[in-house]
């Protein structure tokens, strides 16, 4: 593999922030509402979110068709208009991941986030080869592997980084801060390349992972109230554990609703909150499912203290209210 053409240090610096995972709104007929998606992206960027991953899990990546995923990427890129670093999600079989990574590169993204392959028999060595192949296909942009299995060790990750110099970051989503710290230390001992660790379990785990060396975190909450996510980032950057705990406590119930039942309602809770705030419809696609009436009430309770009812503006076909 030849040397990469992008500025590695600059890209890592730009990714060291809240990495928002935008939802994909659906219209009344079930199709992607692209005008509203563009408005929601503009809302995020205007609020101060400077990194976005279109086609992430909160964007119902696995429920979109190949054509829809590419259309979503283009809408997000057009709406962001160079105001945010873009990390396009790719995955599925290797040929599809490579083709979508090349499409994302041509669309002008700064990096691709490689979903962990959905396979009952995933091996650590196979995970390395999968990511190496995607990275080699797009040497001109950064690559951010998404990792949620503890089977992949620091030695595997170090091997990947040495073989694919455009791997600039790891989205690490193993729910164990001790394992994270150990894996990060093993990677640091196994390679001299600088790599960014992104806490992939959002604000709930961000403080613990920050202590372990992460300097960024992903967020689905950011779709609902960007100020909460940015306040957590400011507290962590400012080494203010009291403020970080205050923010954590204010979002704890909401994030609990997203995480329970092995995250079965992750996207449903986010969209329900957005629906209650007038931001988009609550509609989603299988394998996600609508919330029960009681669960909707719990969402209402979890966001009640966040802000007073905001003013309403019009965006696309929806009535949109912008929380503080």
Blueprint (SSEs and pairs):
Elements: H1 8-15, E1 18-20, H2 34-46, E2 51-52, H3 66-80, E3 85-90, H4 94-106, E4 111-114, H5 124-137, E5 142-147, H6 154-163, E6 169-172, H7 177-190, E7 196-199, H8 202-211, E8 216-219, H9 226-237, H10 241-263, H11 266-276, H12 293-303, E9 312-315, E10 318-321
Parallel strand pairs: 1-8, 2-3, 3-4, 4-5, 5-6, 6-7, 7-8
Antiparallel strand pairs: 9-10
Helix pairs in contact: 2-3, 4-5, 5-6, 6-7, 9-10, 10-11, 10-12, 11-12
Describe the protein in words:
- The protein is built from 12 helices and 10 strands.
- It has 324 residues and is α/β, with parallel strands linked by helices.
- Strand 2 (51-52), helix 3 and strand 3 form a beta-alpha-beta unit.
- Helix 2 (34-46) packs across helix 3 (66-80), helix 10 packs across helix 11 and helix 11 packs across helix 12.
- The protein is globular and about 50 Å long.
- 48% of the residues are buried.
- Residues 308-324 have low confidence and may be disordered.
Supply the key terms:
single chain, 324 residues, alpha/beta, 8-stranded parallel β-sheet, two-stranded antiparallel sheet
Provide the low-confidence segments as ranges.
Answer: 308-324
Class from secondary-structure proportions? alpha/beta
Gyration radius (Cα, Å) is 19 Å
Mean pLDDT: 93
Note the beta-strand portion.
Answer: 5-15%
Distance between the termini: 47 Å
Number of strands: 10
Order of helices and strands: HEHEHEHEHEHEHEHEHHHHEE
Strand order of the largest sheet: 1-8-7-6-5-4-3-2
**Helicity, in percent?**
40-55%
